[in-house]
Amino acid sequence: MSTTPTSASPEAPARPGTPARPAAAGSVGPRRPPGPSQGPPDGTPDGARPAGAPSDGAGPAGTPGDRRAVRRLAGRYGAALGAYAAVKSAGFAVFLALLVHADDYSGKATGRGGGARPWDVLGSWDGVWYQRIALSGYHPQLIPLQGYQHATLYENSAVFFPLYPWLIRIVCACTGLGTYGAGMLVAVVASFVAAAGIFAVAARLGGVRAGVVAAAIWGLFPGSGVEWAVYSDSLFVALAAWSCHCVITRRWLTAGLLAFTAGLGRPTAAALIAAVSLTALVALVRRTDGIVRPLTAVLIAPWGLLGYIGWVGWKVGEPAGYFHLQRGAWNRYFDFGSATAHSLLDVLVGRWHAWQVNPVPDLIAIALLIALPGLVVLLMRTRPPLVLVVYTGLTIVAALASNQIFDNISRYLLPAFPLFIGLATALRRYSWATLAGLLTLPALASGWYAGYALFELGVP
Question: Which spans in 207-319 are helix H?
Answer without folding.
Answer: 208-220, 233-248, 252-262, 269-286, 292-300, 303-316
